[in-house]
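[recover] target loaded
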């Protein structure tokens, strides 16, 4: 009987497992450089915790079950509810602002497809306690640095909008069914024009108003836009509240990201709304600027979440980067890492008599910070050298009886084949 991974789950073999480790290691490094500190939450929480944020529909997506105590629990489908729970417990003693990052394995019972599996890893950045768009600017700047350092430089950009602006614009355009209007906007880049037009009509948007909306959407095509021109055009429309508040926020945010050197990768997109019941103002989404605008990850402001979990009013915003879409992006552009780095040194025993000495050398090298290994299977000299090359070692240290008698070892450069004799002191790196 053969056994395979369950549908929607993946095995990560060498070198891909090492490549993933490199990617998330770089993410951690960037997050710490940007002043975020790491938070780790349990992978199993009460189902109720996730229902507080997402309602009963989370039951359809969560890997939920009763534990041995009869309690309804779930494998974590996201980390934000756990973050909120932890913050509420510490709110009175936690100095603001809080900047946390998490790296977690998560589970959702969804239909597997390209870029979506039932088990996945996710990297989150969250900022709590900052009411202004300085927090969003910090998130976008940190995410940009993170994406650059994992190998995605010049491949991505961010679409940005504000829920209040979207609401004001919808009211101005005559939308009588705002939830349907928002859903239409959110699918604007996926729907054929005729179907989008039909959905907008059903939401109450008349023909002349649809033309105005299409003109605004056109300005955001291709991943570049003149945001100031779009903002001036919207302001001239005289949109009702809460639109002007959202417009003011976006102007301030775009001024900040320009000062941060991000104007080449931030675009105003009035079609972006995201998470109707979750996000409260600014929302953003990263996309593949070279691949038909594929969505990579998203985020935004969620000012009501902490209160929802019983905590004090706390402004908050965050983003979540999934491993699957990031891997697809890097592979599509031949930027996926090679994986585990090769060994520096492979120690070769010419005869069985040198095997104990080979083990000793390996330990000395490792303690000196050198990646080293040796044969564990009593193979011949030629087989050991082949193994050293297969493992990507830079050099082989060859221990033979004649050399041992003279107190030296042979160092072979495995890329050129050149050899030289070294004294034991010269083998180790300088202290």
């Amino acid at each position: 009987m053969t056994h395979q991974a369950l549908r929607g789950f993946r095995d990560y073999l060498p070198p891909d497992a090492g490549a993933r480790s490199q990617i998330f290691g770089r993410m951690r490094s960037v997050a710490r450089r940007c002043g975020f500190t790491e938070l780790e939450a349990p992978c199993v929480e009460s189902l109720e915790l996730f229902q507080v944020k997402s309602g009963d529909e989370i039951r359809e997506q969560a890997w939920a079950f009763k534990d041995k105590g009869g309690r309804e629990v779930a494998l974590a489908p996201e980390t934000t509810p756990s973050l909120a729970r932890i913050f509420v417990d510490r709110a009175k003693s936690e100095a603001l602002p809080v900047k946390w990052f998490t790296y977690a394995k998560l589970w959702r019972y969804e239909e597997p497809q390209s870029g979506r599996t039932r088990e996945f890893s996710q990297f989150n950045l969250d900022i709590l306690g900052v009411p202004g768009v300085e927090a969003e600017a910090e998130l976008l700047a940190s995410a940009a640095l993170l994406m650059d350092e994992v190998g995605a430089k010049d491949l991505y950009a961010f679409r940005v909008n504000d829920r209040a602006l979207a609401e004001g614009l919808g009211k101005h355009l005559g939308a009588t069914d705002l939830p349907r209007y928002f859903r239409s906007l959110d699918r604007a880049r996926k729907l054929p024009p005729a179907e989008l037009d039909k959905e907008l009509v059903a939401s109450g948007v008349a023909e002349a108003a649809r033309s105005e909306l299409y003109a605004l959407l056109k300005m955001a095509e291709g991943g570049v836009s003149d945001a100031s021109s779009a903002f001036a055009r919207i302001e001239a429309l005289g949109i009702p509240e809460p639109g002007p508040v959202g417009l003011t926020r976006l102007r301030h945010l775009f001024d900040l990201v320009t000062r941060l050197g991000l104007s080449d990768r931030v675009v105003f997109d009035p079609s972006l709304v995201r998470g109707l019941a979750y996000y409260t103002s600014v929302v953003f989404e990263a996309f593949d600027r070279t691949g038909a605008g594929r969505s990579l990850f998203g985020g935004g402001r969620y000012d009501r979440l902490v209160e929802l979990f019983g905590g004090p009013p706390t402004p908050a915003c965050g983003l979540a980067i999934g491993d699957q879409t990031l891997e697809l992006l890097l592979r599509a552009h031949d930027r996926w890492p090679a994986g585990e780095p090769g060994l520096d040194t492979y120690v070769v025993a010419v005869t069985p008599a040198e095997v104990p000495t080979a083990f000793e050398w390996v330990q000395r090298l490792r303690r000196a910070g050198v990646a080293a290994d040796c044969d564990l299977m009593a193979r011949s000299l030629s087989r050991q050298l082949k193994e050293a090359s297969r493992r990507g070692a830079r050099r082989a240290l060859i221990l033979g009886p004649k050399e041992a008698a003279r107190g030296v070892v042979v160092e072979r450069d495995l890329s050129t084949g050149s050899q030289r004799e070294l004294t034991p002191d010269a083998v180790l790196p300088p202290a």
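[recover] notes: DSSP finds 17 helices and 16 strands in the chain.
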